[in-house]
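mind reviewing this stuff:

——
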Amino acid sequence: MYFQLNQLSMTYPSGKKALKDVTLALKSPNLIGLLGPNGAGKSTLMQLLVAGLLPTGGEILLDGAPLLQSEQLLKSKLGYLPQTFGLYEELTVYQFLDYMAALKQIPDRKQAILSALSDTHLEDKKKVKIRTLSGGQRQRVGIAQALLGNPEFLIFDEPTVGLDPEERISFRNLFSRMAQERLVLLSTHIIEDVQSVCNQLIVIHHGCILFSGTPAELIQRAEGHVGIFEETSSLQETHVSITSRVNTSKGVICRAVADRLPVYVSPAEPTLEDAYLYLILQEDTK
């Protein structure tokens, strides 16, 4: 699958400009991480990609054809987990997935359900009512419904929220395996989730694309702009943005990003989180 977004814009009736002249190419197979602060435009972008919204400007092409002309084809190849996903509390996990499989018109519903249950480690919960599940288990049910029917295009909006570290690692590995043959778009605030598995990152802020490239390319942008220093009561920290404070036996050690590191800051190797924060800082200080 190949999506081409050309000067895509979205302005809501309230006048809020959620997206501004977004131009992107999304091509499978690929695992793409979508990063950005709250309100940056991530959810709007995903809604446009699944034809849940119509853009107020620009166009989306799917395999060279306008998305609206290919909407039925898109829906047949789509697996989607929105950030807010309603579950039918009185249904069992199996009943809910059977209902979703019927909506998707999946021919062999039983096999599709068993496969999704296995991928999300929910086999022992298939006869359990959803209302009795923990938050993490509910999230797994949401991921399972997205996997039904072996879709070619998967969108996950904050899929690892509520999962413990072991579960997050398991699902990151699952997303990575799926992206070997599919287009997977992963929107998250958890930098670790995209750093470990995504080979392309898109950073969006105030409705604009700030970056599109590999994690290594984003990290390279922050070289020379990340450092550490010991916090003291007399130190003026007005020229840096503190990203972490760690209490040690020698005092408080701070990590910071800045356009120009002050003399009291020792340069440090940037992480992906550092690079992301530095990119956002640059935009906010324009």
Notes: The chain has nine helices and 14 strands. Residues 165-178 form the longest helix (14 residues).
